[in-house]
Protein: Nitrate ABC transporter ATP-binding protein
Organism: Acidovorax carolinensis
Amino acid sequence: MHTSLTTKFIEIQGVEQTFKTAKGLFPALQGINLTVAKGEFVALIGHSGCGKSTLLNLIAGLTTPTSGALLCANKEIKGPGPERAVVFQNHSLLPWLTCFDNVHLAVERVFGKTESKAQLAARTDAALALVGLAHAAQKRPGEISGGMKQRVGIARALSMQPQVLLMDEPFGALDALTRARLQDELLEIVARTQSTVVMVTHDVDEAVLLSNKIVMMTNGPAATIGEVLAVDLPRPRNRVALAEDPRYVHCRKAVIDFLYTRQGHVEKAA
Ligand SMILES: Nc1ncnc2c1ncn2[C@@H]1O[C@H](COP(=O)(O)OP(=O)(O)OP(=O)(O)O)[C@@H](O)[C@H]1O
């Protein structure tokens, strides 16, 4: 159960992102102002191409904004850092390494200079155990299912003991049942580790089930934050019980209204 969600952790101030393309400048994001508190779970939702990944990449420090500022723990975000671990949709594991070695690589990068070999191995084991994959430690990505690969990706991110977990549609490529199971696991892990999470998703139910706050983005070009919805559902959350909870239904409807009534989907060429 989150106690206080008041400590400002990530601050995004007047951020604008313009890309140079063959056809000229493309304004992807403008006027983005957002605060994420420590221990908060924030979902970014919006139609395809509105700029969710662009915003997540800015927080990850993989790109720099055209203007505006991004801060993490009062420090300007100037590049990627182990305190902001990223989980991508396609797990991005190295296929020739075992699950253990894939996670160990990240552990070594962050703690290699300060900890013994035994400590690094123990961290790796603990991260795999956290996602229920201790038994698959010696398997290679090609020998495990899509859901398991995604769990290794989450273990790798968590193994760095990041202050914030940035997830870009982490369950987007999975079937509905595996996706539901991983959402439930993520809920438990986040409760146990008190992680701060920013997650990009297309899935309204996923956003409501997992988050404290849903950031709804307008369609691009020059996309911005249209509305922020507070999800005041108590934790722990149970998907079956929530399905009929009027507060859940209300949140779900508010997001659907925003996406389909006020931001009617416009397909546009990328
Ligand atoms: N490096 C880039 N150069 C040029 N345009 C880009 C670049 N990255 C993103 N864009 C454009 O910026 C817009 C936002 O892209 P982004 O990938 O952030 O959207 P998204 O909301 O994450 O989409 P999806 O939900 O489909 O993954 C799109 O129009 C995209 O074509």
